Amino acid sequence: VQLQASGGGLVQPGGSLRLSCQASGGLFRVYTVSWYRQAPGKRRESVAAITTGGTATYEDSVKGRFTISRDNAKNTVTLQMNSLKPEDTAVYYCNAFTFWGQGTLVTSPA
């Protein structure tokens, strides 16, 4: 499975971004897919995950602001990020099993 993350950018606090993780080359639909992020000088952390059946879980700091969804027919997982904060600034990665996307940078300046 190859994963391609996209959608990052610069957004003012309170704004929104939509990240996409496009998969190819494997049985994407059988995997739980997660979004992780890594801020400068910090460890990579899980942000949200969605199971094959569509059950979503979130890290506490993004609950109510981020929404993860998947479209198995299109091999895509999306992370809708609303009410962005400076502390959301990080490189965001999508993950399925042992497969990782290349990361997309989200910046919300203080």
Give a short summary of the structure.
The chain is an all-beta fold.
Describe the protein's architecture and organization.
The protein is mainly beta. Helix content is 0%, strand content 50%. It contains no helices and 11 strands. Strands 2, 4, 5, 6, 9, 10 and 11 form a 7-stranded mixed sheet that branches. A 4-stranded antiparallel sheet has the order 1-3-8-7, with no helix packed on it. Strand 7 (66-71) and strand 8 form a beta hairpin. The chain is globular and about 40 Å long. The N and C termini lie far apart (36 Å). The mean pLDDT is 95.
Using brief descriptors, characterize the structure shown:
seven-stranded mixed sheet; 0% helix; globular
Element string (H = helix, E = strand): EEEEEEEEEEE
Strand content: over 45%
The proportion of residues forming helix, as a percent range, comes to under 10%
Overall pLDDT confidence: 95
Secondary structure layout:
Blueprint: E1 2-6, E2 9-10, E3 17-24, E4 33-38, E5 45-50, E6 56-58, E7 66-71, E8 76-81, E9 90-96, E10 99-100, E11 104-107
Parallel strand pairs: 2-11
Antiparallel strand pairs: 1-3, 3-8, 4-5, 4-9, 5-6, 7-8, 9-10, 9-11
